[in-house]
Each structure stands twice: as C-alpha cells, then as structure tokens.
Amino acid sequence: MTITDDKKKSIVQSILESKDFKDSSIYRSLLTYLADSALSNCIPKEITVAIDVFGKDVTFNSNKDSTVRYHVHTLRNKLEKYYKNEGKEDKVRLVIPKGHYEIKFVASNDRMFQKSDRVISFLKRWEIVTIILLLLINSYLIYRTTFMNPFSPISRAPSHVDTEDKIWPPFFENGNPVSVILGDDFFMDEFCPDYDRYRIIRDWKIDSEEELSEFLVKHPDANLWKSEITGIPFGGTSNLMDILPIVYRFQDNVSLHISSTLSLDDIQNHNIIYIGEFKNLRILNQIIYKTPIRYQYLPEEKLHIVENGDTVETFIRIEAPYEQQDKY
Q1: Predicted pLDDT at 112
Q2: Less Cβ around it within 10 Å: N or C end of the chain?
Q3: Got the DSSP string for 165-197?
C-alpha cells in the first residue's frame, strides 16, 4: 500500500487534533518535528531532537540527560492510547520503533504489522508477566476450593463466612462481577554514570508519569524515565491468597488487574476489591472522590469517613515492625 506525503500529513494532523494531543504543546512539537523529519527522509539523532525540540545546546550529553528518551517513550504511550480510542479505526498508523527516532507509517491491515505489533506489545508490557502470575494463583485457589479439603492445615482463608457478617454478604448481594485490583509500584530506569550501567529504581515520592515529569522539570539533569517493569508491593500476593477464597464462595465471575494498566471501562458495573497503598490507587481515585471517603497521606496516616462535610469516623494506620514476617 502506497502512502502519499499528503496522506501522511493528514494522519499527523488528525493525531495532533485528538484530545490526547491538542492541549499538550510539548508532545505536539515533538510529534510534528519527528513527522517533518520522516517526510524529509531524515532520521534525527538524539542530540538533534534535544537541540531542536527541547532547546538544549551542543554540550548535550545523553548519558547524563534523559529528556529526549523520556519524552519519546511517553509519546509512544500517547500514540498507543490514541489508537485504542479515537484512532482505533485508522487504516494507517504512525509507529515509532523502540530505540529509534524515526516515524513509520504502516497500514493497519498489514498482516506482518498486526503480528509484530502484538508480539512487540506483549514484550513491552512486562506487567503481563505479573498478570499471568496472578492468574496462576487464581487458578490454584479455584482448584483448592473445588477439589481439596478447605480445612487442611495449608488453608489460610476462613472456611466459612457467616451470613450475618457485616461486610461480605452485602458486598456481593447485587450479583455484579468482581474486579480484584492490585496497586502496583511505579518503577523508573536510571543511567548511573558512576557505574556506567542502567538500573531500575523506586522513588517513594514519584508514583506516576505526571509526578516524574514534574520532578524532571525541577531536576533536568536526572537520568530517569518510566520503566516498562512494575512490581507488586510487599504482602500483595499474600492478601490475594486470603481474599480470593472468600470471593469465590459468593461469586465465580472474578477478574484480576493491576492499577497501572486499569481503565474505568475495565471495572464498570463491577464490585471492586483493591489491595494496595493509597499512592497506587491511580485512576481509582476518580471513584474515591465521588464517595464520602477522604484520606490523608501523611506521616500520621489517617482515613476519614466524611458525611455532609463532617468527619464521622477516623481510622489510623498501624504499621507492624519491619522484621515481622506476617505483617501484611
């Protein structure tokens, strides 16, 4: 399929006018620059992108400044989101191969493109490994609940939930499917010039791409960008082992998610069980804000239940000693 330059310009313009790009001057400029380079049969280097788009000078050192890599990585994510929503019917797609700054225009009905796109998407999403692990745990628990003695010494979950229990029966009485969501941590990749190597790091004050972007504005020399690897906090799978046997006593239609990949469509008309920290709620905060629950993420962490503007109940987080083995 031959794609004319006019068609390519039209494709780029449609993306620039989409809701994910129209209010983002940085990514509009970056996409426009890469598209113009592609139309001129020019493959830009990292330093040229840094100078022409981000205003760096000729002393730019990619080993010490990850600005270009971070923004191109985010641009790929924004394009992926665009093609899942507004651009899902597009017959030609704009692709930026990983490790390059060259834009390619590919027919979406190209069989090779479809196959490679699925493979690349799978390999890119390391969190899928986590989901597979959770599904294996899920399957094991179904097996134990169905075929094995629930009173065996290994069984950690309660074998019976009282019908007068104030939490579980009311939670399931609407018959909706259940979404169990694990709040996964936000990891970053870092280049450390002192050791001349790349590392994965966790910063307790950076839990989203927005917070990372704000950090890089304040610290432009930081060699950080979002990692494609995620992680489940300590005790998350142990919580899951306890919760799922209870859930399956009431409802067979259960799905597992991690919060970093969650969309509201995934959980519409579902009962939700969240396992994780407040800082990893991500999109679930949109639901929390519509309830009477308010929380403070402070050293003296508290959870306030608010009704009509008045606090009616307060819960205080109690943290077990670090060395305690079963502190989850």
Answers
A1: 47
A2: N
A3: -SSHHHHHTT---EEEEE--EEEEEEEETTTTE
Task: Return the amino acid letter for 276.
Answer: G
List Cα–Cα distances, 232 to 137, 239, 248, 288, in angstroms.
14, 11, 22, 21
Q: What is the pLDDT of residues 148-161, one digit of tens each?
A: 554 444 444 444 67
Sheet of strand 254-258, all strands in order from the earlier edge strand to the far edge: 254-258, 178-182, 271-275
What pTM did the predictor assign? 0.52
- 103: nearest Cα among 53, 33, 55: 33
Residues in contact with 129: Cβ distance below 8 Å, sequence separation at least 6, in sequence order: none
* Pair 75, 33: CB distance under 8 Å: no
By three-state DSSP, how is residue 312 classified?
strand
Specify the pairing of strand 254-258 against strand 178-182: parallel
Give me the residue label for tokens 């989850």. 328
Which long-range contacts (C-beta less than 8 Å, at least 24 apart) are formed by 83-92?
Answer: 85/20, 86/18, 86/19, 86/20, 87/14, 87/15, 87/18, 90/11, 90/14, 92/1, 92/3, 92/7, 92/11
At 255-293, the pLDDT tens digits run: 999 998 888 888 889 999 999 888 889 889 888 888 877
For residues 31-49, average pLDDT: 90
The label of the residue with tokens 């994510």 reads 77
Q: Which amino acid is at 155?
A: S
